[in-house]
């Protein structure tokens, strides 16, 4: 548990990249949709690798982290090598990723509670919001596809900010 109190440069860099990708997606939705599949695929692969290499060493419960990490990597690779598939189904994949990541964050929040109550509250709030948004995206994938650049931008911003906060 000591590692969570140390500065993590990998999390910090990935967090900054997430924030930059979020700002680009929100500010240029006309251009962002054509590149969003590539951005989401790369971010998903990096995030999955990060969770697989860093999170499994920190927590006792490794099964869910490993499953979630591998799922992030597989979804990222699938979107990376089949752009049409990724564009067609990005709303559904995005909703599933949002829900799974949020459920993972919610299940891991108990470990953060021992280190910082403020981080715990922030993680629980963002995780619950993530589950709600993910369910809404599953209910209306057409609406989410129409605003995918904005939604991905918000996801990148939130994930990036959380990674930066946790890296410090």
UniProtKB/TrEMBL annotation:
GO terms for cellular component: plasma membrane. Transmembrane segments: none annotated. InterPro entries: Acid_resist_chaperone_HdeD, DUF308_memb. It comes from the Bacteria. This is Integral membrane protein.
